[in-house]
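A common beginner's mistake is to predict each chain separately and then try to dock the pieces by hand. The better habit, illustrated here, is to supply every component at once so that their relative placement is modeled jointly.
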Amino acid sequence: MLVVMQAGASPEQISRVLDSIRALELTPHPLPGATRTAIGITGNTGAVDSRLLEVLPGVKECIRVTKPYKLASREMHSADTAFDIASTKVNSKTFTMVAGPCSLENEAMIMKTAEFLMENGVKLMRAGAFKPRTSPYAFQGMGLEGLEIFKRVKKRTGIGIVTELMDTEHAAAVEDAVDVIQIGTRNMQNFSLLKRVGLTRKPVLLKRGMSATLEEWLMAAEYVMAGGNYQVILCERGVRTFSDHSRNTLDLSVIPPAKILSHLPIFVDPSHGTGKRAFVPPMSLAALAAGADGLLVEIHPDPDRAMSDGAQSLDFPNFQKMLGSLRQIAEPLGRQMG
Amino acid sequence: MLVVMQAGASPEQISRVLDSIRALELTPHPLPGATRTAIGITGNTGAVDSRLLEVLPGVKECIRVTKPYKLASREMHSADTAFDIASTKVNSKTFTMVAGPCSLENEAMIMKTAEFLMENGVKLMRAGAFKPRTSPYAFQGMGLEGLEIFKRVKKRTGIGIVTELMDTEHAAAVEDAVDVIQIGTRNMQNFSLLKRVGLTRKPVLLKRGMSATLEEWLMAAEYVMAGGNYQVILCERGVRTFSDHSRNTLDLSVIPPAKILSHLPIFVDPSHGTGKRAFVPPMSLAALAAGADGLLVEIHPDPDRAMSDGAQSLDFPNFQKMLGSLRQIAEPLGRQMG
Amino acid sequence: MLVVMQAGASPEQISRVLDSIRALELTPHPLPGATRTAIGITGNTGAVDSRLLEVLPGVKECIRVTKPYKLASREMHSADTAFDIASTKVNSKTFTMVAGPCSLENEAMIMKTAEFLMENGVKLMRAGAFKPRTSPYAFQGMGLEGLEIFKRVKKRTGIGIVTELMDTEHAAAVEDAVDVIQIGTRNMQNFSLLKRVGLTRKPVLLKRGMSATLEEWLMAAEYVMAGGNYQVILCERGVRTFSDHSRNTLDLSVIPPAKILSHLPIFVDPSHGTGKRAFVPPMSLAALAAGADGLLVEIHPDPDRAMSDGAQSLDFPNFQKMLGSLRQIAEPLGRQMG
Amino acid sequence: MLVVMQAGASPEQISRVLDSIRALELTPHPLPGATRTAIGITGNTGAVDSRLLEVLPGVKECIRVTKPYKLASREMHSADTAFDIASTKVNSKTFTMVAGPCSLENEAMIMKTAEFLMENGVKLMRAGAFKPRTSPYAFQGMGLEGLEIFKRVKKRTGIGIVTELMDTEHAAAVEDAVDVIQIGTRNMQNFSLLKRVGLTRKPVLLKRGMSATLEEWLMAAEYVMAGGNYQVILCERGVRTFSDHSRNTLDLSVIPPAKILSHLPIFVDPSHGTGKRAFVPPMSLAALAAGADGLLVEIHPDPDRAMSDGAQSLDFPNFQKMLGSLRQIAEPLGRQMG
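With all components supplied together, the output reads:
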């Protein structure tokens, strides 16, 4: 349920509505807007008589949200979600670039990559310190040592860091070290982990599960938001189908319906989505044209020697070339590269 | 196998190679190029000693084609296939628009649509006279009467017609009446039909089967080309997956690998691909950005009263708006609207 | 719509109802039952006032059928469909075996196989004279010559023949030569072909399309039945999914819902369904246990030298062993091997 | 790599081999067999010279395991894995039944269900105390309180308990309270959780992920086994496909290849696999016939009032009837109900 306050409602009036919601054993989520405040209500709202809230001073109306996801739905929050990360931003007028290696391999390579990105106007870097590997015998990432490296890279270059969190145990350390917490595709329905990152105050980049429907994906976002963390970025990274011409089937067609049903920003990961570097530039352009808000791209100073996913990583010159192509169509599409 | 002739090979030399190939009980397919002629060979080439051909005057070299598709493969024909249809063209510098109603409903509506399209620079119209319907009790199209209407529309407006052929019985009539013969998704592996259209001399628009791999699709094209009809256009129209946010899952990611493996042009049908008109403009822009050579879009003067597929048809004003958006990004992408 | 006649309705009364239905420009399908006759009505029944028929002498009631398939639905025909083929039968108490090579390769091998089958109590043989091959350059079957061989094999051994029909052109010849006309998976929605076999009077074995839903499959059966041929056997042969441990994903779970929604018999093809001979016996047992009415199995006197699909063909001793296993569980499951 | 000891190798010889493996910075996994001991080696075995181990006293031979999963592969452990749980067993001659409600709702219903099961010879009960729910607002299970109830039910009835563990936090409590730890489909690649249950000494029932390949599933089992817990049961529960006639597509065809590639037992969950109670008995019979080692079935004293998944739960009389049918075909299939 959504309580919409009148344009001139006072802080006291808002506060009283919050208290009344809590008294009903429900959870209020204040959602300040440009002209008025709204208050989302989650919990078992089925049995609530909305008139109890509508009669309170400063309340304009109560609206029932028909979708199973509430905080993630556009019914409850009609404007596109927008927020800042490090020195860049995420919103409907920006096409936010995130790039970097699959794995953090050593400090020298990550520093080199960060400097290259900042020189090229890319202000967010992705890199994995904890790696979800199919085999228990494969390299599992640098772990906590990697987080220390991230702090030094950030301090020196000013770049924002996006990294994956794989379990609740390392949540505090990751929240402390980076700018965006990534939830990987295999953990999209790891509900304990989603609840935990709902308690952090860093943006969460939520990758779509390999065979998740749009509704399940938005429900996963709802788990994070129900904890009070509203800065969620959806990230399409390819789904699993019969198709064998690419590693996964990058589902750009999810972007328009996601934009209609939800106010959350949506990024695209064409590197995992296709699995082959030659397919990354055309699918990146297509993502921008389809209405995505940003990209998550794998690049590597020397892809053929990458410890993981080299086949889908662009080298620096090809990434620069792709940035140039993106810039050319961003403007007619009403976006600024960010 | 591919025989590459020397740049200055004479017609007599080429002719002698053709004869030698036939003498080996194989089929030669002359493929004239900008600087030299090549000759594709199909049939059971496994046992052929290529030296028998390499010693002939004017022959530069013989190349074994490693893919199961031969004539459709880029190994055998490295340049992008290009040809003209009606007053427009299909090639790697053009983004060819095809639009029109799902079904031909009556002469007035089709004439109105054709005039609208020509006024807006769209020179090819799609419309179904024979309709593949899931139910035997549903409207099956106007049939042969529809073909007569097409001839009159064409005569009056000059527009080129694209229509579906469902069986060998009507092949001659359809070839006679229209400019492009469409093979529908349900018939992508109707091998008798593919062989039949291989004998026509009209371009064939070959829709991808609902769960066809790229290789199966190119093999279907090969069936058409093996008959001597080399003007094949691939058309992606969405594949079947678990995903339920759209009618099918439009697989734009097939475009880059298709372009690498084959020289054939590839169009995209975002109307069937998504099933909802609101998703058509963003996915059309994405198709162009991903490297498609053209679009097949459903439009209708009054979509809410369409006899079939109204939910996925654009009305005229929204189609015009979409054309404007496409034009804006076509130029930076190196394409001209056609 | 379904008109149910009273138990003692006379032929004249039935005849009058048929005429009345035709007078409404609809098509009547008489469906004689054990105790009373019912008459299915197809065509645009939406606008028909059922009272026009209910007042006729001998009519018990009119029932609206809610499914898009009518003749195939259990609503219209509550008893399981049963019929005889050659010297065996198809019904809910029999588990009907069909076995044989993928392709008819030559007369000797097919005669040998037929004799082996008859000796082992298997009275139906499958073999392809017209082969749907992915490649235009692959062996396309013996064609019409093969049909002649079938006639001789049938005459000598008494075995019934099941073979695939690929186009309308050969429909009459195939109907004449064999006992069951098979429609292959790639042609499940070749509507022209479905209409054509609806005009034959031989049972039709309708393979499920590679990504067909149950409803689409029953609609395909409806196309055949709408033409007046009610002897349709559904055949599950594996669907296309992301799974890579077998050639297709054999969907035995379609059997229970198919049995609820339709009265048509359903067979299973574990050879194409799995693609590997070692998986055929366990999946055959599972098909019987899941409620299937029969099997379509590939066997070959010398599988490793088969012209096609040898990897999924059982040799004779392994097929005999499997027959033994099937027999052991058929009885407790209430089935007799047929 | 696998070191096979001679039949009469002494404990000292085995011990020396284990030490030598550790000296190479690899992990030895002793695998005692009926006639001789084998020692699996995991870690980076690529660079190891097997001759270093082959020269040790008591060593028969060293075998390279070619699959990415080692401990789970039949190459390393040729006999079927067998072990006891509570008062029943898991092995290739037993068909092990596990039944119970989706959620533990209260002590009375679970006690009633346990008594019913023990009376009917079913010695393992499934019930969820921690529930993975798509919505954060849905009932999340009784949690730790539920584990106490399990202990009382177990004490009173002697039944063994199977329950799901959702996070590392509750691993010790769950290991302490129950007989089998279930890893749910959404956590099949929650690698942190897999590693944690690898450290427990209770059997782990590992559900297949919604779109997991067989190899990925065996790799997930390998994560558990690499920790030293070799009692892993695979559980097929339906995969996600385009098919809409059931909740998921129950993939019984995975059983034969799983049996060839791995020695681990495999159970089937027809309740989640189909989502509809009418489909559970035929698919249970089919699972047994296909070679499964056990079943995981949802039953409920009053399915229509179940707090979750009532539509797929059998009531007690229908479950008894199904048990009777299973018993009839178990014997001819060489299995004893357990």
